[in-house]
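Here is an idea for our session: we take a single protein and study its fold together. Which protein we use is up to you, so please pick one and set it down. Once you have written the record down, we can walk along the chain together:
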Amino acid sequence: MPPLDDIYGDYELLEPDDRYRLLIDLGRALEPMPDALKADASLVRGCSASVWLYPLPRDDGRLHFLADSNAAITKGIVALVLAAVQDRTPAEILAADFEGLLAPFDLKNQLSSNRTQGIPNMIALVRATAQRLAG
């Protein structure tokens, strides 16, 4: 997954239809999530599509997330959220300004409200996981 700044560098140059394609491509680039992890416990509540998010704590204390969705654009949105925090420490994740990091993408104006309604829930789940693992 490229850094969020690099993704935005491409995103801002694109027309709306191409932005959709970029999000779909980001979703396709996510590391595959085993079906066994797509369970009720990893389901993100409040999303219009099914979204699963599963944390994998690393030996070095960093968090790596596996994620998937049954909707291509939503999966791309998940990839954007993860690009902000993938392989960071719980403290770095808790300090991250998700809203500020995602603001340049202007997702609320680029996508329908159905597509963006689950973003706060995704962020909340990532933060809760980081909080739990931070001790």
Q: What stands out?
A: The longest helix spans residues 119-134. The radius of gyration is 14 Å. The beta strands are 51-57, 63-69. The mean pLDDT is 91.
